[in-house]
């Protein structure tokens, strides 16, 4: 089997309203922009991948075709070496690897997790918010998630003073496991600069979480490449420290492991490692007693890739993006079916490959707009 070409289409899904993601300070997001890639083969099998994008798109499908046309999609390791060159001179390409696994799984008639030697299993979801909101605006949201079956919620913060949000939520929900994301590892500076935390700020906030109790982790309180600072922070506080969602390549996670800098490794297969790389990172984490719970906040194809990776790695939680109006219908708009949970748990799709079907009408409309 050979790859005959890469076809890229910019997709733009409407959001019924706006929300203000903490990783794009000051930006009112009202659309879901992504790049969809179709990896075509001479066997008539097409694999799909997607990456986040901006309004107007980010075109590099033709360049990917130059690197991948003629390659056997089963040669994941060899193609990933070629993608390292793409990473050197252009956009991050790790999401393309999910399309290879999609092809391989469809060819074998097996879901990706089975190709990786795993069995399907229910994974508990935590409801992942995307905005900072004060406690009086969060209580009803959290109660709604509990009523839906979620057993944990992740709160977003941007300031050290937002420890008060965590304290107030803990008072309202004394038995609810919480995760807290500071979003200091990276940011998209389109509208405003983010508020940066010093090491002392991170220590102060983390100790406040220690006092609140039953906080499962503090996510990315420091820049994503400051491995020594993460290690120092772990030594000074009790709350587990998480991060790495947007680090670039498995070698960054070897640094986290070498410094014993994280309690929870969170590489996103679509952004940081690919699927196989994610499984490798999970093994690194396990080697010194850390956990593996990937970031999933991209789109439904990225969610599927991470779900297969989690299944192979035995993750104990799955991040489930939920910040109305940013709902599963929004981040799954390119699929014929979405990713619903069952009483707060989810399973990887059992169909071959990634196990998802692209909505042909959505794709055809986007291609027509590109041609027009």
From TrEMBL:
Keywords assigned by UniProt, alphabetized: Magnesium, Metal-binding
Annotated GO biological process: carbohydrate catabolic process
Lineage of the organism: Archaea, Methanobacteriati, Methanobacteriota, Stenosarchaea group, Halobacteria
Protein name: Mandelate racemase/muconate lactonizing enzyme C-terminal domain-containing protein
Entry keyword annotation includes Magnesium: yes
CDD domains found in the cross-reference section: MR_like
Species assigned in the record: Haloglomus irregulare
Domain Mandelate racemase/muconate lactonizing enzyme C-terminal stretches: 135-240
Listed InterPro entries: Enolase-like_C_sf (IPR036849), Enolase-like_N (IPR029017), Enolase_C-like (IPR029065), Mandelate_racemase_C (IPR013342), Mandelate_racemase_N_dom (IPR013341), RHMD-like (IPR046945)
Organism superkingdom: Archaea
CC cofactor: Mg(2+)
GO molecular function, one term: hydro-lyase activity
